[in-house]
Amino acid sequence: MNRLTPDAPPRPIAVGDVVVAFNDLLGEWTAAQVTHFHEEWKSVALLELTWSGPEPAGIDDLGVVEALKLSHQSWGGGLSHCFFEWILPRSHKIIGTMPVLQAKPPSSYSAGWRIGDQLFYQRRWDSGNRDEFIDPAELSCTGAELNALSGPRQDLRILRVAGIDELDCKQLVESYPDLTELILTGNLGILANAGSLNRLTRLKSLIISDLFGMDGPDCLLPKHVPALENLWLSSVPRDYASATRTAWRGEIVHGVSLEIQAPRKPEWVAENLNNPLRDWDGRERISALRYKKALALYRTTRRAVQDAFANASGDARLARLTEIGRGFSEGFNKLDGRDPFIETVERDELFAALNHLITEVGGMDDPAARDALLASAEANRDW
Fold first, then answer.
1. Which terminus of the chain has fewer Cβ atoms in its 10 Å neighbourhood, N or C?
2. Which tens digit of pLDDT belongs to each residue from 191-227?
3. Which among 136, 133, 170, 134 is positioned nearest to 153, based on CA atoms?
C-alpha cells in the first residue's frame, strides 16, 4: 500500500472539535464532533449530531446539541459513531470545540467523510417512509451499459462504472458535466482522453482502478478541479501515477486524501493480460516472493490443463485433471504455510482462476472435466 498520509493530521483537528459540512441529500449543512484519535490507524472518530441548517458561524448556531441515534433499517438505536481517515476534507470546517459527548470509542471504521447521510436516512425513516432510497442523482453501471446510454444528464452527481473495456473520458464529461464523485474500474481496460476529466470542475472524489492508456500529461491538476478531496489510484500506468503524485502531494495539507497503489509498467500490462491472479501483485499481506511463486504455480497448472485437453480424452483426461487439481491445491497449501494469507477473497480468486483455465481451453462443453479439476482442488486444499 502507498497511502500518502503524514504522521499527524495534515489539517489541524483535535478531540472535541465540531466539524460542519454541506450535505447534498439534505440540502443543508450538518455537523459532527471529533471524539477520539487512533494514531495507528491514522484515523479520527466522528460522532454525528442531529442538527442541520444554514451554514453556521459557531457552535451557538447549532442550538441544543444532541448525538444522532440510528434506528432506521437494521440499526438498533446505537449512535452514528465511526472512525474515518484523519484528513479533514477541504470542504469541511471546524466551528469550535465543546466537551466530548461520547467517552467510549466506536468499534467500526469507514472511508469517506459523509457527514449528514445518516441523518438524512434517519429523518426519512422517522417520517414513515420505509421504501428503499434510490438517489436519482446517482448511477451505477457497467462500461457496456454506459456506452449504450444516450443523451446528457446534467443532474447526475455520482457515477460508478465497473468492468470497463474501453471508455472515452471526453464523451463522459460531455454527457455528465456536473459530477462530484466518479469511480472507474476496469479489467486491464483502456481509458481514452483521460485528461478531459480536468473539465469536471465540481469533482470531489475520483477513484480509478485497473485502467490503462493514460500518460503523465493526462493527470488531474489542482487548478482545474479545486474542490477535489479524495483521489485514489490503483493499478494504473506508472507515469500517470507518478505525475498525479507530484501534482497532488502538496494538496494533502489542504484536505485531500491521496492514495496511490500498484503503479504498473507497460511490460506488466503485456505480461498480465491473461493472468487472473494479477491483483495479488502488491496486495497487502502478499509479498513479492509469494506472488511470484503463486504465479509460477498458476502457469504450471495452465500448461498442464492445456496439455490434458490437447493430448487426452475421456477417462484419461479426467484422471489427469484430477491429478492437476490435487497438485494445484497442494502447491498453494505449501505456499500458504505457517503464515497464512489465503482468506475468503483469495480462495475465491483461486477457484475463479481454475474456471478460467477450463474456459480458456474450450472446456465449457465438458462439464465433467471442469468438475474433475475443481472437485480435486476442493478436496485437497487446506485454505
1. N
2. 999 999 999 999 999 999 999 999 999 999 999 999 9
3. 136
